[in-house]
Amino acid sequence: MQRDEIYSVPRLAAELQVSATPVREALLDLAREGLLEPVRNRGFRVVALAPQELNDIYAIRLLLEVPSIAEVARSGGSPKQLQSLRRLASSIQQSAVSGDLIGFLDADRKFHVELIDIIGNKALSKIVAALRDRVRLYGFSDGKANEHLATSSAEHFQLLERVENRDADGAAAVMKHHLERSRDVWAANVQRSPPSPAMPEKQTSAAT
């Protein structure tokens, strides 16, 4: 999804070849989570994040995910968990090579949530997933997208290596760098395309 583009229920339903009802419900769920906003008689659009909001989200993620990954590394994870993470890391890499941003973001989200799941704290996993969702709807708008995807995919394997070796400090350092670099990429994208003024119409019942 791209910022400032209107997504109507009929159009998305036609593209997905499904009925309008589940599409409308899914979009309303995203709106309730603050990821989309309804535009009267037109549909929905992605909620734009100001640079400061983006920085705030990444600051929270650093506070949560860096020490969490250190705890994950100390536990090491089960063979089944590590095998699933390796598959996801490979999917991330394949998506990066093919330039499939949607596939990349989907596998990336699953990878990081599964990493946190090793701790066994469902509330923490839910918060991390929600914070990631707040920024994952932003696409890349310049020629450096493929470079970022390739670098990021390599970092997932580095994280796995640290976790498998139970290297808590090393895992925390990789995660910190991973998040900070991603934050800089997203921030640069927001600065190139500043958020548009919010539409005053926010009545969900009027959205199509």
Describe this structure in words.
- The protein has 208 residues and is mainly alpha-helical.
- The chain has two domains: 9-49 and 195-206, Orthogonal Bundle (Arc Repressor Mutant, subunit A); 51-192, GntR ligand-binding domain-like (Four Helix Bundle (Hemerythrin (Met), subunit A), Up-down Bundle).
- Helix content is 69%, strand content 4%.
- The chain contains eight helices and two strands; from the N terminus they run ααββαααααα.
- It has helices at 9-16, 20-32, 51-75, 79-98, 101-117, 122-136, 145-164, 168-192, and strands spanning 36-39, 43-46.
- It has a two-stranded antiparallel ribbon with strand order 1-2.
- Helix 3 (51-75) runs antiparallel to helix 8.
- It is globular and about 55 Å long.
